[in-house]
Amino acid sequence: KYAAMHTEDRGDKDAYGSLPKEEWLDNNSPYRGKNVCVTGKFIHYPDRDSLRIELKRLGAHISKNVSKSTDILLCGTLESAGPSKVKKIQQQGGIIHTENNVTPWVAEQI
User: Fold this and answer.
1) Fewest C-beta atoms under 10 Å: which of 8, 89, 98, 105?
2) What are the φ and ψ backbone dihedral angles of 71, each rounded to 5 degrees?
3) What are 13-65's pLDDT values in tens digits?
4) Cα separation of 107 and 4, whole Å?
């Protein structure tokens, strides 16, 4: 669904397709250039696809799973994240953010 909506290649295609250049934001987001895995339940983003699109606008590369290249695990709350994803990101020294971390960055761009 997401890949079908966006056809112009950003050059950093990820698991959710690419984003047209006109939708990129020029900012100093902590997500710019980072590999981010989105998991868990979100209060302000019940539709995780909308959150993924906002993160891509902030410069993130989105993945479906935690891998060696994952920089940030973004979860609605720590309790809502899969325990195996939390354990894996902690073992590799990655960062865990909750919805509270990303909301100010997204709200600032609206």
Assistant:
1) 8
2) -95, -40
3) 565 566 666 666 666 778 888 999 999 999 888 888 888 888 888 888 999 89
4) 26
Residue bearing tokens 């100010």: 104
What does pTM read for this prediction? 0.75
Say how far apart CA 27 and CA 60 lie, in whole Å: 12
CB 94 within 8 A of CB 67: no
Q: Are 59 and 24 in contact (CB under 8 A)?
A: yes
Residue count of the chain: 110
Q: How far apart are CA 5 and CA 73, in angstroms?
A: 25
Name 14's Cβ contacts closer than 8 Å, sequence gap at least 6.
56, 61, 62, 63
